[in-house]
Amino acid sequence: MKVLLVFTCLFFASLSARASQSPGDTSFTIIPVAKNAWGYNINLNGKVFIHQTTIPGMQGNIAFSRKTDAENTAKLVVQKIKKGIMPPSVSLQELQQLNIYNLKKQ
What we know:
- This protein is of the alpha+beta class.
- It has helices at 2-21, 67-82, 92-97; strands at residues 26-34, 37-44, 47-52.
- Strands 1-2-3 form a three-stranded antiparallel β-sheet, with helices on one face.
């Protein structure tokens, strides 16, 4: 358990260090993840920083069913990184405010 805790702390510390390099050079790309499903990559300094194939913060492997939902969530994550919020987690309340379609199925 302690090893997992240490690994988790180191992981988020490395994410924070990478994001602080140049949060202004942060972008996203929308990616297809399955038939009629979407995810996104958050790019930092031209490299993939976050590869998100499911709706963040949701249990299971549920991808975005609308491309615009993936895009709006990716924009929120980019805004958080640019503000220095690390990790740039997304809450259920934020997803609801974005009117993510898949949440209605839960």
